[in-house]
Write a structure and sequence with these properties.
The chain is an alpha/beta fold and 323 residues long. The protein has a single domain, classed as TIM Barrel (Alpha-Beta Barrel), CATH 3.20.20.370. The protein has eleven helices and eleven strands. A hairpin with a 2-residue loop joins strand 8 and strand 9 (217-224). Helix 2 (47-59) runs parallel beside helix 3, helix 5 runs parallel beside helix 6 and helix 7 packs across helix 10 (287-303). It is globular, with a radius of gyration of 19 Å.
């Protein structure tokens, strides 16, 4: 039987590079720079999501695509924010809904993937979402997740699961799991859902698992088992064909014998891997998009019908025995 394969895309925010805010906070500046010394590009053209849609359609790729409901704490995705081009925002959302959503599950990466938000006032808290979550429980996490789901519903992007920004919820994972289940059932009427928090880059044992089951209700933890080899494309001006091929090699070599995905295929386990929106953007060069396209081409050429692209929700249902 063909092995399932799924791709996780983390951090997409409409028209912004959320990584700009991460580096700016870390460097305590409004002019953040990459390790290479290059300034981090803050704004992302709508053409990136169009180019990404081209790739997943052309290569048959399926998986998960995060959408930040309150990107970088700037404002609701349904309303925009100061300086936001509302027409381009609408185009971004339309492209995700019409071209990405048929192939990729949508999840909130909670709200901002930056500072946590006070739901009563929508003011930003002093802590980022990762640190805020570490001292919460189900009673506070549930409404936080539920509001993120509602914000996505307002723009027609109903989520099937939840993605952690950074390692949001790791320290309180039993409470986090309760909150995911409660929020998803309350807002989207789902009692079968999944979340992405964990990674296992070196294990060849399948690490995704059913973490809750009660009657027909279940929750699955989807675990990525490959590093994001596209991340490096942000830190270099190289973007020629030879460089793109070398980056793709880390996932899968041309002959199918090398690369992390080949290791997982040879282990005979479902292949779950991930990358980031900023990795595809490559600080404006979009080298990562071209490398992903090449990876998709190689997967089809090398494995053909021996693998089958699935959404994360499909993989979760198969693990839970409800496919």
């Amino acid at each position: 039987m063909a092995l399932p394969i799924t791709l996780i895309i983390d951090d997409p925010g409409p028209l912004i590079n959320v990584y700009w805010w991460h580096v700016a906070e870390r460097q305590r500046t409004d002019q953040p720079r990459l390790k290479s010394g290059e300034p981090v590009v803050r704004d992302v053209p709508v053409d990136l999501v169009r180019g990404f849609a081209d790739v997943i359609e052309r290569r048959g790729i399926r998986g998960k695509f995060s959408v930040l409901p309150y990107p970088a704490g700037l404002g609701k995705i349904s309303e925009g924010w100061p300086g936001c081009d509302r027409q381009q925002l609408a185009q971004w959302i339309d492209t995700v809904r019409e071209r990405v959503m048929p192939r990729m599950d949508i999840t909130p990466e909670i709200h901002s993937h930056a500072k946590a938000i006070d739901l009563a006032t929508f003011e930003l808290l002093d802590e980022n979402e990762r640190n805020w979550a570490a001292h919460q429980d189900a009673s506070t996490l549930t409404p936080y997740i539920a509001e993120a789901l509602r914000f996505l519903n307002e723009v027609g992007l109903e989520a099937t699961g939840v993605t952690s920004p950074w390692d949001f919820g790791r320290e309180v994972e039993p409470e986090y799991r309760k909150a995911i289940r409660a929020a998803m059932k309350d807002v989207n009427g789902r009692n079968q859902t999944w979340y992405f928090l964990h990674t296992a880059y070196s294990s060849n044992e399948f690490c995704s698992e059913v973490v809750h089951r009660e009657g027909d209700d279940w929750l699955v933890s989807i675990c990525s088992q490959s590093n994001d080899f596209l991340w490096q494309t942000m830190e270099t001006g190289e973007d020629g064909p030879e460089y793109v091929s070398a980056v793709a090699d880390a996932f899968l070599t041309e002959d199918g014998r090398g690369g992390r995905l080949a290791e997982l295929f040879q282990a005979g386990i479902p292949i779950v891997f991930h990358t980031h929106w900023q990795s595809l953007f490559s600080n404006g060069r979009c080298t990562g998009v071209r490398a992903l396209d090449e990876v998709g081409r190689r997967i089809a050429a090398v494995w053909g019908g021996d693998v089958r692209w699935v959404k994360c929700s499909k993989l979760a249902a198969e693990l839970a025995g409800n496919a």
